[in-house]
Amino acid sequence: MSSETFIEIxxxxxxxxxxxxxxxxxxxxxxxxxxxxxxxxxxxxxTTLMRLVAGVHATDQGRVVFDGxxxxxxxxxxxxxxxxxxxxxxxxGALFTDLNVFENVAFxxxxxxxxxxxxxxxxxxxxxxxxxxxxxxxxxxxxxSGGMARRIALARAIALDPELIIYDEPFAGLDLISMGxxxxxxxxxxxxxxxxxxxxxxxxxxxxxxSDHVVLLAGxxxxxxxxxxxxxxxxxxxxxxQFVRGEPDGPVKFHYPAPEIGADFGVNA
Length: 269
Fold this sequence. Notes:
four-stranded antiparallel beta sheet, single chain, 9 helices, Rossmann fold, alpha/beta
């Protein structure tokens, strides 16, 4: 594997039910230090793919390679070590509501390090400052907006200076201003820290604005297209055009496949 490749998905097949694979013979490479977006409709396997990268599930076939090392979910020591290099921004933040903003960001530092409290305090305030919320350190989670909560979760995700940051639907449920703030933060943090970022989303404009590489997935983990944002936006492939332009008519049909009306009831149509 090239040293420029940080994460490799090598002919991976996986399904929660053995008779119905979510991903089938999928191969992808994500480059070190880049922002890569994984786009696609609901149910195409985007979040499942990221769970495999994080070692939450074992592949049915194929392998996931993390910086040259094959992920083995049975090896707890390896998983702990690799996850120490990974930060995860969950879809709705997953903040601890019984802790205030400061304590939420401090949580991974207290769990995974033996740093003195004075240093933890400095790191937490630095991370909150990076997302523009140092002044909110003393607030309770019930006192912050949805957009602020997402930024607090991001500060927590980068508390341990991860080499890989995974964003699961970072723009979901945000207003336009908060979307713009979140998108700018993802790009800025990636460039400043040198981290590798994987963004799972179905929000095309935001991802196209900040990504170096874009992968468009369809059902079964099928790769419809991949390339730079400009390449996907200029694509003449009907399925790619339909998704990136949000067109209602195209290869992806409105109706789920069904028998002729009346056939469900044994009646001739």
